[in-house]
């Protein structure tokens, strides 16, 4: 996988108190290099939910659940 991504759990460990979060979920095939670069240029931090590829609708629920459990 891409080295630029880090586990979502690692990002949340350093985020105290809870910052505003804008979550973007990519397509099941992944983001293109151009899309990732555009997101990073706008200040997004790339994160991963793990090695498994989740369906788009499942990834949203998993990410929100992980964030809610942490904060």
Give a verbal description of the structure:
By secondary structure, the chain is mainly alpha-helical. The chain is 42% helix and 6% strand. It is built from 3 helices and 2 strands; from the N terminus they run βααβα. The chain has a two-stranded parallel ribbon. The model has no long low-confidence stretch (mean pLDDT 84).
Helix content: 40-55%
Query: How confident overall, as mean pLDDT?
Result: 84
**Structural class estimated from helices and strands:** mainly alpha
Count helical runs. 3
What general outline do the C-alpha atoms trace? globular
Q: Let me know the largest β-sheet.
A: 2 strands, parallel
- β-strand percent reads 5-15%
Radius of gyration: 12 Å
Would you count the extended β strands for me? 2
| Euclidean distance between termini CA atoms | 27 Å
Q: Which strands sit side by side, in order, in the main sheet?
A: 1-2
- The unreliable regions are none
- What is the helix/strand order? EHHEH
Strand and helix map with partners:
Blueprint: E1 6-7, H1 8-13, H2 33-41, E2 47-48, H3 56-70
Parallel strand pairs: 1-2
Give a short summary of the structure.
By secondary structure, the protein is mostly helical.
């Amino acid at each position: 996988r891409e080295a630029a991504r880090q586990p979502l759990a690692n990002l949340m460990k350093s985020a105290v108190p809870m910052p505003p979060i804008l979550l973007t979920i990519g397509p099941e095939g992944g983001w293109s290099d151009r899309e990732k670069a555009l997101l990073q240029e706008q200040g997004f931090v790339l994160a991963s939910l793990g090695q498994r590829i989740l369906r788009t609708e499942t990834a949203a629920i998993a990410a929100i659940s992980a964030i809610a459990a942490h904060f």
